Fold this sequence. Notes:
Oligomer: single chain
Amino acid sequence: MTTSYTPDLPTLRSGLLDAMSELKDQRAILRDRLIPSADPAVASRAADVAISLFRVTTLNGSIDSFQGTTLTGWETRISFAPKTGHHCACPDWKNRQRACKHVVALAERAIQHLVLKEHRGAQAIEAMDEKVRLLQNEAHESLRQLRC
């Protein structure tokens, strides 16, 4: 006989909160550190860059990096492990080794992705909490009926 482990609800809820906190931290790195590191004139041109192929890689359940390919073919990467960094194949990045408009565009796309993931996590917690409330109400009602 094989038994499988199913985590209890507090453990699942705690895991969701931890994952959401990690997503929020990564979003803050992109918003507060990476995007401001670009020259303002370069950052303002990021709106003109379209990321045609957006990829997320994970390592042990955590986001390891975001990768993107622009419509003009530049390969861009933002990584979080083992340390935060970025790279682009464009001449601007190669010459200055600073965030170029492609890196900023990828960061903005990654922020959208992270916000969506955080929202889904919040929805999962709300649904879980609602189910717990319903079960608690049923249990209280059953207990009340047993005592009558």
